[in-house]
Amino acid sequence: METNKAIISVKNLVKKYDDFIAVQDLSFEVYENEIFGLLGPNGAGKTTTLEIIETLRDKTSGEIIVDGFSVDKHPNAIKQIIGVQLQAAGYYPNLNLIELIELFAGLYGAKIKPMEMLEKVNLQDKAKAKYKALSGGQKQRFSIATTLINQPKIIFLDEPTTGLDPQARRNLWDLIIEIRNAGTTVVITTHYMDEAEQLCDRVAFVERGKIIAVDTPDNLIDQLINSGFERKKEVKKANLEDVFINLTGKEWRE
Amino acid sequence: MQKDINNGTDQVPVRSSGTYSNTTATLALAKASFRSIMRSPSAVVFTLAFPLIFILVFGFLGSGGTRIDVGITPESDINNPVIGMLQKTGMIRLVKDKSKDEFDKLLEKGNVDAMIDVHRKVNTAAYSVNVIYTSASRDKGGILKSVLNNLFYDKTLKPTIAEIKESSVKGREYKTIDFILPGQLGFSLLSTGVFGTAFVFLSLRQTLVIKRFFATPVKRSSIVIGEGIARIGFALIGALFIILIGHFFFGFTLVHGVVTVANMLLLAIMGIIVFMGFGFIISGIAKSESMVPPISNIVTLPQFLLSGTFFSIEAFPTWLQPISRALPLTYLNDAMRKVAFEGMGLWDVKFQIMILLIWGIVIYAIAVKVFKWE
């Protein structure tokens, strides 16, 4: 993180629906090769913002540049360098994982070995399984595998850990960190602050369509403490999730 | 299908890994969709099982035409040319090995349609044939009477053994299957096109599969064409299967053999494309999967009943016939029958094809307006 070169830059983004402003004047930058967290309550505009960057939704105004390409002028160029995991997206029915990967390889025009993609997310044993038959954690890992098919520079993960058990969640963190270490920039949304704190290099807080804070988790916490904030209860060196993992083991349950 | 990188404003080659191919993407989609259809029970049932069941039922019902059960009195001389000739007509089933009393009871109930008694006349080569009809089965008795009249000038007595000279020209026999099969083929194409397309696009839209596709460089046209290729391919395999089973098991008439089959498959393609248009419209206006069957039935049922699938539309009351003549399936069925049985070429059924084309234009004009991607 020595060089903070922006790979995504969002300037004055506005998205209006008929009588409702989802995003108002939102600006931020995502640096190359970082894990960037977009945090905020439901309905704050996180998903809308992501989908506009992903070229899936039109914006009302503002400027977005992704790796030098403008969403207005070169949406297809952007599509080729990003991988997208949608919140609650399904996959083509009746196909097994290998066949789904083959389909996406065709859609991206990428030449890959489907089995290698599944190995990346540790799903090689499920190659012949249907997507519907996977557990929650497996589904999310498969979704992430589909984002990697075109060897993207940036991947977008919209609430990838929602609904997962603690083991699957930690397991997914490891996978995301691995992907980042392999040189990919990761943009992620989550409702779990412990996750953001552990995983993200920087986070942005979105509230009512506006960014209200952007910084590293550490700095944001320090700022709060410096402002005189104190927790009501002395924090122990472990929390209940640590107890859960300690008692039930670290291995994956699926 | 062109091989340019991107469309419209987006002309920047992005990666060194080569140009993006819309053809590859389209074919990948077609392959995926085809695999999915082949594994979908409802597609297989509607395209193959239903039409085949109807063909089986009508094939067996219709193959022999009318059957007349004729009892032979126990005293009769079985090995005589009269009985032999009766059997050759293929219409008459002989009931043997029953006593006269039993036959009398069966006659009364109409379980046998007539009873026949054949005796060689004493000292001659001629036979005496005695027929007893029953009022319980007048129709069939009448048919038997004319059959016998064909065999003999006089049904009871004839001095010499009757010799039948068939002088009628042997025309092509128009069998039940020749009428039923094209209708069932049309029905198969209609249900695959309408139900299949409507369900697939609605569910792909609702489960955000299409949205995920949009995050890849694939074009919208590739999605539609890919799906279309898969569905047309599946429908053609189904059509070929129905035609071959009909031909080899039920004697479905294919006047020019392979050429006729090829013409029928070309008609099938035109039909399925028009019917898919209905599917696109339904997927656009249906709000949920449970709305697909009722709306689809509004499209398919009238055509199923009124387009000459089971009965010739001439059999309908005159006020219904204009409705029949407005439906696309009527013209597909009509063209199929003309091609298969009368051996016409596609140019000979250009009128029917033109009507299908007009339907296609109207349907797709509406589909473009109401189809929803998200």
From TrEMBL, chain A:
Cellular component GO terms held in the UniProt record: plasma membrane
Keywords, sorted A to Z: ATP-binding, Cell membrane, Membrane, Nodulation, Nucleotide-binding, Translocase, Transport
ABC transporter domain ranges (all copies): 8-233
CDD domains referenced in this protein's UniProt entry, alphabetically: ABC_subfamily_A
Pfam family, one: ABC_tran
InterPro entries: AAA+_ATPase, ABC_transporter-like_ATP-bd, ABC_transporter-like_CS, ABC_transporter_ATP-binding, P-loop_NTPase
Compartments (UniProt record): Cell membrane
Main location, first listed in the record: membrane
PANTHER family: ABC TRANSPORTER ATP-BINDING PROTEIN, ABC TRANSPORTER ATP-BINDING PROTEIN NATA
Family statement drawn from the similarity comment of this UniProt entry: Belongs to the ABC transporter superfamily.
Protein name per the record: ABC transporter ATP-binding protein
Automatic annotation (TrEMBL), chain B:
Membrane-spanning parts: 43-61, 185-204, 229-252, 264-286, 298-320, 351-371
Keywords: Cell membrane, Membrane, Transmembrane, Transmembrane helix, Transport
Domain called ABC transmembrane type-2: residue spans: 141-374
InterPro entries, per database record: ABC-2_transporter, ABC2_TM, ABC2_TM_bact-type, ABC_2_transport
GO MF annotation, one: ABC-type transporter activity
GO cellular component terms, A-Z: ATP-binding cassette (ABC) transporter complex
Chief location bin: membrane
Record family assignment: Belongs to the ABC-2 integral membrane protein family.
Protein name per Swiss-Prot or TrEMBL: Transport permease protein
